[in-house]
Structure formats: C-alpha cells, structure tokens
Amino acid sequence: MTTVGLLEGSTEALYDNEAELRRLIGERLILLGAAAEPGQSEALADIILGRIAREAGRLVKAAEPEAADSAKTPQHKPVVIVGGAGGMGRQLHRAFERSGWPVRILEQGDWPQAAEILKGAGTVVVSVPIDKTISVIEALTGLLPREALLCDVTSVKAGPVEAMMRVHRGPVAGLHPMFGPDVASFAGQVFVYAPGRDAAAAEPLLEQIRRWGAKVVTCSAEEHDRSMGIIQALRHFTTFAYGVFLSKLNPDLSVILQLSSPIYRLELEMVGRLFAQDPRLYADIILANPRNTQLIRGYVESLAPELAMIEARDRDEFIRRFERVRLYFGDLAPAFMKESGRMLNLIQTERAERADVMSLKDAPESDGNTSSQV
C-alpha cells in the first residue's frame, strides 16, 4: 500500500469521529491524484502532501484523549441532554456516546414524555438558548431523579445555578464551554465549572471532560459572570459597535482587504465572524446581566478623554498613557506579541499555500514535450 493510501485508511479506521478533518484530507487526496497526472507540477503534490500531514497530525492529537478514554470509562447511568438537537447539544451527544455513556434527548416536542425520558437519568444537561434556560430548568420541577446531577452549559451562570438549586434537591453544577459548536474536538478547550451542590457528585462528569482533553477551570457563578462581562459582553459589544460604524462609513471591503496588513485583516475577519452568526445569541450574551450595561457604559464614557487627547494632538500624553497600559500588561505584552506573531505566521503560510495550490492547479498543462520548435 502507498504511504498516502495507508494514511487515508488509518485515519478512517482509527479516528472516524473527526468528520471535518476527514473531509479535508479527502479533498487533499483528490487534489493529490490530480497533481500526479502527467504534465502537473511536482511542487503542487508537495504542497498537498504537506497539508495532509498537518491535518493528519491534528486528527491524532484530537483523537488521543478519546482513544485512551474508550478503554477506561466505566458504565454510567443515562445522560439526558435537554436541547440535544442544538449545536452544543449535538457536540455533547457525540462526545458522550463516543465515551460509552447512554444518551437520551429531550427536545421541545418531547415534553409529554419527559418523565419517561428522565427516568433513571444519572446526569441531566440543559443546553438551550440563554433566554430559555431558566424557564426550561423550572419545567424540570418534580421530574428529576433525586440522585441525578443537574447542570447547564449556558454562558451566564448565577441565574441558572440559582434556578437549578431551587428546582432540584440533588447535585447541581454550572458549566460553560468556552468555545462554539464548530470545534473539531474538545481537546485543548476550556470548560468553566461553577459548583452548585454536592461537588463530589459532579466529579465523574468533570473527569470525563478532562479525558476528552479539555481543561476544567473552577470558579463561583458570580465570579464567572463578572469575568464574562469583560471576556464576552464587552468584547462582543465593541466588535458589534465597530461593525455598525464600519457599515455606516460603507467603504469597499474588497479594497480595504487589498490594502490591509495581516493583523488588520485578522481583526476584520473577527468582526465579520461575529456578524455571520446568530444575532439572538449575542444579544442574549450582552443583555443577560444588568452589570454588563454598567460595564459597557463605563467603557463608552472612558473614550471621551481619549478623544479629547487626540483632538488636542497631545503626542506626549498619548505616549504616557500608552506606557501606563504597557506596565499594566507587564510580561504578558511581549508574550502576547510573540504568540500573536506565531498565529499570523501560520495564517499567512496557509493562505500562501492555498494561493500556490490554486495557481498551480490553474496553470496550463504541459504536453510533456520540452524540445524547442524551430
């Protein structure tokens, strides 16, 4: 068997769960087959083989925690995912099933059978939109086995944890996956854990999350929500406001992209990424906590003296304020510069390889005759 054939067969057999990466590798293999045809450049094949090797490496890294987990996970009572047909619910469904946990789904149309679906459950995960979370938790009143662990995966924690403690007399845990439903694997991701009641009962679930390769970070629900005001609400608001302002300026984005530095292009892509997603999700994140309004107001009001400094064209004051912020970041500033530089280099390399592939693929085919015609 050829090296490429072995690669394809082994990734399909060993890491069948990583569908997206398998698709990418499959596309590369098709391109590789075309590149092997007479008259095509050897450089094209080299570029494609490099991409296959890197994507196969990602497959192995993502699959290692799950492969190890499959041999160690004990038998568990069923997991019921309330909202299992949503993006995060589907991710959790696949992950639990891969690890041998029986999974049941409770969706909107299933509430007449909710008592039967929840019967004998060991873990119940509420995975619904933020604005529906508390009402769905309250709908579980009287339906949960006493020993079942009740948890949620919402990006707000204080309200849902309080509601779960009120509704359920058994174990309670607040969870917040710090990633979206489009990740290929939980490996390397972060789950925030906000303890509710009976931390020992939550440990098997937390251990399973660690076996998936994720990191569990523990903090109180209140501390979580304060931090998310900065990490999510303020960040999403500033991105939203920048996008709104940019749309009012109405520049030709194709021209902006042609003139952009790598870092600005990446920043613009992050703005575009926000507006490619569900506006209801971001509205709920920003509006979920009244403290977010105070935080955002403070940020907007803080811009006035910065604008006054610019209007006064006070270069010395700009440098003084810049240096104060540099001191605040300390050693993190140069560390962040190095890390972001590595990210930009990876992105630039991938873009260059894509451009090379397209240019070589579109090049006119040679007839194989290199002799000159007189």
From TrEMBL:
Q: Which residues form the Prephenate/arogenate dehydrogenase domain?
A: 77-340
Any GO MF annotation of the entry: prephenate dehydrogenase (NADP+) activity
Determine if Oxidoreductase is one of this entry's keywords: yes
Q: Which UniProt keywords apply?
A: Oxidoreductase
What Gene3D superfamilies does the record tag this protein with? 6-phosphogluconate dehydrogenase C-terminal like domain (1.10.3660.10), NAD(P)-binding Rossmann-like Domain (3.40.50.720)
What SUPFAM superfamilies would the database entry show?
Answer: 6-phosphogluconate dehydrogenase C-terminal domain-like (SSF48179), NAD(P)-binding Rossmann-fold domains (SSF51735)
Quick one: a GO biological-process term for this protein?
tyrosine biosynthetic process
- Which InterPro entries did the record assign? 6-PGluconate_DH-like_C_sf, NAD(P)-bd_dom_sf, PDH_C, PDH_N, Preph/Arog_dehydrog, Prephen_DH
Q: Does the keyword Oxidoreductase apply?
A: yes
Q: Which PROSITE patterns match?
A: PDH_ADH (PS51176)
Among PANTHER family, the record links this protein to: PREPHENATE DEHYDROGENASE (PTHR21363), PREPHENATE DEHYDROGENASE [NADP(+)] (PTHR21363:SF0)
Name listed for the protein in its UniProt record: Prephenate/arogenate dehydrogenase domain-containing protein
Which species is this record about? Sutterella wadsworthensis HGA0223
Instruction: Name the lineage.
Output: Bacteria, Pseudomonadati, Pseudomonadota, Betaproteobacteria, Burkholderiales
